[in-house]
Request: fold
Amino acid sequence: MIVLGSVQAAVELLENRSQIYSSRPISVIAQLVSWDWLLSLLPYNAVWRSQRRFFVEHFSKTMIQEYHPIMLQECHRLLVGCLADPSRGRQHLRNLPSAVIARIAYGVQGATSIKEKVALAEGGMASIRQMLVPGAFLAELIPALRYIPAWLPGGSARKFAQTHKKAVIRMRDQPFYEVVDAINAGSSVPSIASSLVMHMQEENDGRELTADQEATARDVVGAAYIGAVDTTSGLMEFLILAIAMHPGVQSKAQTELDRVVGHSRLPGFRDLEDLTYLKAIVMETVRWLPVAPLGAPRLLERDDVYKGYHIPKGTVVSYNAWAMLRDPQDYEDPEKFVPERFIGVNGMIDPLIRDPISIAFGFGRRACPGVSFALSLTTIFAALTLHAFDIEAGVDEVGDPVVLKAEQTGEGISCPTTFPRSIKPRSARTEGLVHDLIPGCDEGI
Ligand code: HEM
Reply:
């Protein structure tokens, strides 16, 4: 196994030689738990190519604009939820990306159904979180352990699979087949799933989908559902942590919001262009505590030579995004949270400072195809939350002050170890703005 520690090496191998560095290692646990259909784990082959093409079509920068109304509605629901019950702020936040993706991917409607789909995603995600802890399963190193029955010592891989397999398949299949049933009943609503199925039906001159087509459509949408959940909420959680730990940054962002948006309304997508400091906060959050500190591993498909080193076929090649994002040559005082580092003398984002997004979302052909979704949702969430609320560390359940730390969990997809608990309206006026949002949008999640 090789871990690349510099952007230069990652670009030279994962991007410039992507024809041989774009596969993924086979995970014994993923196979046992039935995660091996997932786009992000597929080897570099024709199935991956076809799924990735469909995925990118529905998550391009242009397509994301179609999803703005849903993103905005769900962010409004979050604001109302935080106003009603600030102590559940972190839970409201964690539910936001799942609710948005359930609506976009499957056209789920109504607070109760959304809540049900959020719970379904949670059930499926439980296993992937554990699988992504490096070294969590001995069976990844000694594949023969996969054959040990669950009830024998050493059978933990099978036991784990038994516990989680049903939830994974349910999460992938249930919402998708509900869409197929709705299409057949003539009652479907627009969604990625319905658009994929109907597009394939058209290609078949109206005939039913083949088993391969059905699996492709189902798995592409399932990959979006899974890809969006923990990653995007992780980024939002780090942003809120950073804001609470840096009151100066918070008030500077609020001053910018007051100037651009004013006091009589909440921000919308059209304001984001003019919120340069807010954009810099999102970039600095992506850099400061990266959600995927070690990216995702690749499998080298042919022998290679790099800088005089022979790298044999079959080598697992990972990259240390965390270290790259802390390289002092690119980012002065890298431990500090300083959004200003991205702003040039003209007050705009400085193109000469390396964009952390080009590292944190991966490299080459396997780079994250959900990047525009994640950044759009996080930025509008940040604009709305900072415009409406003041965020502070607060106190815990027993009244002791919360001590916030710039610290992340050790999982493959990480989140903060501490989180602020005080979310208060900035003023009676912003409280009123949140109050006036969609009547009834606080019931449900
Ligand atoms: C803060 C949010 C996110 C972060 C930090 C993130 C990060 C990553 C990283 C590091 C990879 C691996 C790239 C590589 O191999 O070099 C990846 C892959 C992937 N991401 Fe994301 N991601 C985020 C959000 C999303 C969202 C919102 C979606 C779906 C809408 C998504 C879907 C995927 C998929 C499907 C892959 C696999 C691509 C492939 O293997 O071809 N991600 N992501």
Remarks:
- The mean pLDDT is 92.
- Residues 39-40, 52, 55, 59, 223-224, 227-228, 231-232, 235, 291-292, 295-296, 360-363, 366-370, 373-374 surround protoporphyrin IX containing FE (CB under 6 Å).
- Strands lie at 2-4, 298-299, 304-306, 309-311, 316-319, 389-392, 422-425.
